[in-house]
Specification:
six-stranded mixed sheet; single chain; binds fe (iii) ion; alpha/beta; 14 strands; Metallo-beta-lactamase, Chain A; binds zinc ion
Amino acid sequence: MALTVDLVPCLSDNYAYLLHDAADGLCAVVDPSEPEPVRRALAARGLRLTHILNTHHHFDHTGGNIPLKQEFGAVIVGPAKDRARIPGIDVGVDESAPWQFGPHTARILEIPAHTRAHIAFAFEDENIVFTGDTLFAMGCGRLFEGTPQMMWTSLSKLMRLADDMRVYCGHEYTLSNGRFALTVEPNNADLRARMKEVQALRAQSQPTIPSTLGLEKKTNPFLRPDSPEIRKTLAMEDADTVAVFGELRRRKDAF
Ligand code: ZN
Ligand code: FE
């Protein structure tokens, strides 16, 4: 049976996601920022929560953990290397073994830099990956606990997944990410076309999520530090990949 993903907008610009399969009665929420929107989304679909998955410890991704665990008895799954900072964690996971969601297998990718123990859950048979605050639509997370080299290694790990993986990230930052992308790669035709679509969606308050990994590779500047146009814009034609990546991140921080 197929997994269904439902977006649950939380706080001002977070997304939690319901992940469920009618056949086996399992229902997970990924990165619940707060309990109430998750409760409402479950009730509207007649679902009972069985699992809570966290990509990292930040409060806007774990704020719903304890209330939802108390209410539903849900099992909390998060990065093993960050047990002390994941509220209510029951199961710690890392990339040494997949995590099994009933019949569905999630490969765990350790993708540190936004936080030192950030993980992604990749359901490769279903082409679904939850990237938290590491890979955004046309952007990447801030380097709170890591270096440009660490983030580039993490993003490179995600880039080795299949191009048709659907990317579900932690925030609706797409429009501002795209505006930044256009400043460094204004002649990227794929980027320009995508921005028109994103602007139309956001004008109607529609989500821009999910994207696909293939589309990110064509339009996300943080996956494109080897683009000749980006290098020319930054006057870094001969710099190494990580140096260009680091400069992109610095410019986005100040954008
Ligand atoms: Zn975060
Ligand atoms: Fe966040």
